[in-house]
Structure formats: structure tokens, C-alpha cells
Design goal:
The chain is an all-alpha fold. It folds into two domains: 11-76, no CATH class; 83-181, Chromosomal Replication Initiator Protein Dnaa, Chain: A (Orthogonal Bundle), CATH 1.10.1750. Helix content is 65%, strand content 0%. The protein is built from nine helices and no strands. It has helices at residues 11-21, 43-76, 83-94, 98-102, 108-124, 130-136, 142-155, 163-168, 170-181. The longest helix has 34 residues, at 43-76. The protein is elongated.
């Protein structure tokens, strides 16, 4: 009977030890491959099972390497601009209070400054997901954030849309230049 071994190249057991250290469950293979009946235990079937086990292990090792590389990259490029600073600056630029930006009203004179604020947060804090930004901006849905970002990108060049003026404001440019300096 062929099964996935717990320690291949010492990588799996090292990961198990790391997970135990942080109180997580032990490693479980996503699929247990076996040849249950004696008829299935032919050399061809066992070779296919062994090949698939190696493929699964290889995928797991690659996924772990990607996860570690991404974590290292995020740690190196940690954002320096606090959310409170972004929201406060957008509030000053647009002339709308923070409470109104986070409030439930959807009139254009409040929605467009809210869209601008969401766009600024998305540009400056790429580490925040859309659901996180949505929750920050008054427990909204993540699709509201998606709509806001698309709306600003689409309308920022239009003459009648105020986004271009807000983006060109020196305070907004100072925030955006802080991001560029990272």
C-alpha cells in the first residue's frame, strides 16, 4: 500500500515543527494516494501514484516558497502612510467631514469625496484589501470600493469632475510623493 510519507527531504517535518510552534495543526497532505486492491498494486499503478505524490509535494513546496517570498517582500515594502492621515488629508482637500465620508448618505456631494478617499487609500495602502477599505469607510461592501476606484480612474480627466482638482491639490501630491519615495 503506497501512501505519502511524512518527511520528504526534511521539508515537510520542518514545516510541521514550525506550525506546532505557533499552535497550528499538523501538516495534512491534501490527497492520500493509495492502491487499495491487490489488482491495483501493479508496478504501473504504483509508479503513477508515486509520480503524483511527488507532483503534490512539489506543488506544496512551491506554494510555501511563494508564500515566504511574498511575506518577505511585504515586510521590505511596508507602507509608511497611516490610514488616519490619508482620510484626514482627503477630508481637508474635499471639505467634507470624516463622519460624512463614512456615513450612510449617498448623495453626489458626499459620494465623490468618499470615492476620492477610497482611491487615495487604494493607491497609498496597497496592502489593504478591498473588504478592509470598505469596512473602514463605513461598513460598505467591497464592490463599493471597486466602483469608487474605477469611477475616479475613469473621471479624473473630465472637466466637470472634481477628482482632477483634488488629485492635483498639493496635500494630495504630498501623500502620493510619500508613496513614490518608498
Amino acid at each position: 500500500m503506497a501512501t505519502i510519507e511524512g518527511d520528504v527531504f526534511g521539508i515537510v517535518s520542518a514545516r510541521q515543527e514550525e506550525r506546532k510552534k505557533w499552535g497550528r495543526h499538523e501538516y495534512q497532505a491534501p490527497v492520500i494516494l493509495t492502491a487499495k486492491s491487490p489488482e491495483m498494486q501493479t508496478p504501473d499503478v504504483l509508479a503513477k501514484i508515486e509520480k503524483r505524490k511527488q507532483e503534490i509535494l512539489s506543488e506544496l513546496i512551491e506554494a510555501e516558497a511563494r508564500k515566504r517570498a511574498e511575506a518577505a517582500y511585504i515586510a521590505q515594502t511596508a507602507p509608511v502612510c497611516p490610514i488616519a492621515d490619508i482620510v484626514a488629508a482627503c477630508s481637508e482637500i474635499t471639505g467634507i467631514s470624516i463622519d460624512d465620508m463614512r456615513g450612510p448618505r449617498r448623495s453626489r456631494h458626499l459620494a465623490w469625496p468618499r470615492h476620492f478617499t477610497i482611491w487615495m487609500i487604494r493607491r497609498l495602502r496597497w496592502d489593504m484589501s478591498m473588504p478592509m477599505i470598505a469596512k473602514l469607510m463605513g461598513n460598505r461592501d467591497h464592490t463599493t470600493v471597486l466602483h469608487a476606484v474605477r469611477n475616479v480612474e475613469k473621471r479624473r480627466g473630465e472637466i466637470d469632475a472634481p477628482f482632477a482638482g483634488w488629485i492635483e491639490d498639493p496635500r494630495a501630491q504630498a501623500l502620493l510623493s510619500r508613496k513614490a519615495a518608498q
